[in-house]
Each structure stands twice: as structure tokens, then as C-alpha cells.
Amino acid sequence: MSFDGLDRYRGIVDDWDAFLDALSRPLPRCGWVNTLKISRQELFARFERQGIRIRPLEWAENAFVFEGPEADAPGRLLEFYLGYFQIQEEAALVPAKFVKGTQVLDLCAAPGNKTAQIALGLEGRGTVVANDRSYQRMRAIRNTTDRLGLTNVVMSHYDAANYPSATQFDTVVADVPCTCEGTSRKNPDALEPDDPERLERLGRTQKAILRKACRLAKPGGRVIYSTCTYAVEENERLVDEVVRKLPFEPIWVDCKVPGFRSAPGLTSHEGQEFVAGLSHAMRVWPHHNDTGGFFVAVFDKPEEW
Ligand SMILES: C[S@@+](CC[C@H](N)C(=O)[O-])C[C@H]1O[C@@H](n2cnc3c(N)ncnc32)[C@H](O)[C@@H]1O
């Protein structure tokens, strides 16, 4: 696999050799226990009886990594069909940690992994509105929530940038479409160069979605922006551009998660200064925790706004 396209990150990765080394290895497969249907102890005991080796994750409650051959296709296990666990990339578990309140809007929700994780975290209270622009991909959300038995998820089908402003939410999640470079350990095509026009369109979409997320958060509510790419244009530079034009001063939430290694968001790049609050954002490089690449920025809207 060629990593030439990643050269532009040499200046911002903390350990270039470890980064490339991690990218050359297959991605470990991670899952979490659906405690609505089975306890962690019972599921782990079922796995043990069948010789399925897993390693519980210290930092994320009820999450685990497959260590044996099942890692190739955990979705074929009976326990998956029974809704006893959900498969989700380890780094992608982070945004749900920052959800607050019980009314949550997930603007770009398909296939529904973060929606499901958030809905379970609400313990049956509240509502997660799972929105996606792709009708086709929305079916995957319904399959996931049905299989897991989640009853606090409703779905909507809008372009997130034009989401109706009638209701505001405690937390709005903008897990935007991106170039997905950080998923290359699972999907090597993610490192193929993108056509500049598509990148431009993508940037416009990401900005419009983040702006809308800021409008849809209640006063005192929270916005969570995430991508699975390393690209500064889709991460810090984009967030910087949007927050500078907000009619309120964002209250930044520190994204460090105990037990999960990460780097702070960049506050400058190639001579451009970004808002200082971005140091509270989180960059996850694949060698940090043997995961994919990820970016999360979280901020609150002031109460009086
Ligand atoms: C990164 S994926 C979301 C993954 C999902 N949050 C999860 O954890 O399973 C991005 C999603 O954004 C959707 N999308 C792209 N453009 C959109 C738009 N303008 N409005 C709403 N959804 C959009 C895509 O269909 C895709 O499902």
C-alpha cells in the first residue's frame, strides 16, 4: 500500500514511523455489549465457552476487542444476530462520551453506530433523532436499532444543512461525511487521492452541517463535530472558520478521555492561527491506541444564547 499521499502530515504526526507501522497492520475489531439484552458477564461467558477470545477495553465501558479469528467477521457470530453486541470502531466510540442531556440529534447518523451507542447510554430515557440524507443508508439504522431492541430512536430524512429549525436539542452530533483517510486500515481505497471538486463540495457540506448543528443546539446545549480523517481542512481549519462567524462565544469542552491516548487539536497550521479553543479538540492517530484515525471537537452554546 502506498502512503505517499500522507506525506503532508509529516509535520503534525507525533511519531511518523509508528504511524506508518500502524497503518500497515489490519484494524482490530471492536464491539460493545448491548446491556438491554445481556449483561457484560453473560456475554463474555458465552464467548469464553466458545473459545472466542476478547480483550475488554479499560477506557470504554462494556467495550471489547476481538483477539482471535472472529475478528475477521464478528458480524457472523450468533450473538451479533441476537443483538447482544454491536460492532464499532474503537476510536469512533469517543463522541458519544460527550453527549449531554436526553434529547439528541444525530445529523449524519447512518449506518447508526453512534446513534445506537448514544441511545443505549440514555438507558431508555429521552430520544435520539437519527437523521441521514441517504434513504438507502437509513435502512441500516433501522436494522441496527431493531436488532438491538432500542426503542428511543426515531428517524428523519433531511439534508442536515436544511434540517428544520423548529426544535432545538440538548446535544447535536455532526459526524460529517469526510474523506475517511482514517479508515484506511479497513478500506485501503480511502487513501486514493480525491478529485479537487469533490473535496470542495465536501468542505461546503461539512461547513453547512456544522453551522446548522450550532443553530439546532439549545441555549446551554452541546455540539459534537467529528470526522474520520486527518485532513486539517476538514478538521481544525473547518471548525475554526465556522466558530469565528458564530453569533456566540463557544464554551470548549476538553476532549481528553482517561485511558485513551490522543493528541490535542492544532491551534495553528502552515502559518495560519486557529482559535485557541481547538487545543481542547482531540486528534487520534492510529498508533496511539491501535485504531483508525479520528477527530472530535466539542463545544457548548452559552445558556443565555
Ligand atoms: C461518517 S458517516 C456517519 C456514520 C454514523 N454517524 C455512524 O456512527 O454510524 C456520514 C453520513 O453522512 C450522511 N450524509 C452525507 N451528506 C449529508 C447531508 N448533507 N445531510 C445528512 N446526512 C448526510 C451520509 O449518508 C453518511 O451516512
Largest sheet: 9 strands, mixed
Rg computed from alpha carbons, rounded to a whole number of angstroms: 19 Å
Beta percentage is 15-25%
Terminal-residue CA separation = 49 Å
Work out the oligomeric state of the chains in this entry: single chain
- The CATH class name of the largest domain reads Alpha Beta
SSE run: HEHEEHEEHEHEEHEHEEEEEHE
The total beta strand count reads: 15
Structural class: alpha/beta
The CATH homologous superfamily of the largest domain is named Vaccinia Virus protein VP39
User: What does the average pLDDT come to?
Assistant: 97
Give the fraction of residues assigned to helices: 25-40%
CATH architecture of the largest domain: 3-Layer(aba) Sandwich
Uncertain regions spanning at least 5 consecutive residues: none
Bound molecules: S-adenosylmethionine
Number of domains: 2
Return the CATH topology of the largest domain: Rossmann fold
